Amino acid sequence: MQKSQRLNREIKRLIDHPPEGIICYASDKLNLLTVNVIGPHDSPYKGALFELELEIPERYPFVPPHLKFITPVYHPNIDTQGRICMDLLKMPPNGGWKPTISLENLIVAVQSLLGNPNPDDPLMVDIAEEYRFNKTEFERKAKKYAQENGKNCD
């Protein structure tokens, strides 16, 4: 009962009062949300709209939600299937998930990851190497990819 109340409260807040650059839609199932994230202003993803799928597991908040990009992204921490490599999406001891993290905090962290890749924990090693050693080329490719695959919000 308590989980259901928390989840309903979090989803209602996300839908009614979303953080800047984030839009959430509930699906027919309580445990599935569609999330739209606008690329951060100071990144190659600026102005692009990315769709994500957020699936809330039965044991939430004791286990992290499953979050993946539906829109393809050129990024060292997001693979071609949309999976995201981020500490907050992993259980301890290797990850940083805590039951106190809200859905809103998690989505904002993913939006932040777009603008601040972590090349030390990549899913896409070749893109991480490019980010480290040829950032100009990385930014060019990321911007082009975002323009081709994301919806334009500018």
From TrEMBL:
Gene3D superfamilies given in the database record: Ubiquitin Conjugating Enzyme (3.10.110.10)
Pfam family, one: UQ_con
InterPro entries referenced in this protein's UniProt entry, alphabetically: Ub_conjugating_enzyme (IPR050113), UBC (IPR000608), UBQ-conjugating_enzyme/RWD (IPR016135)
Listed name of the protein: UBC core domain-containing protein
Species whose genome carries this gene: Nasonia vitripennis (Parasitic wasp)
Domain UBC core intervals: 2-151
Lineage: Eukaryota, Metazoa, Ecdysozoa, Arthropoda, Hexapoda
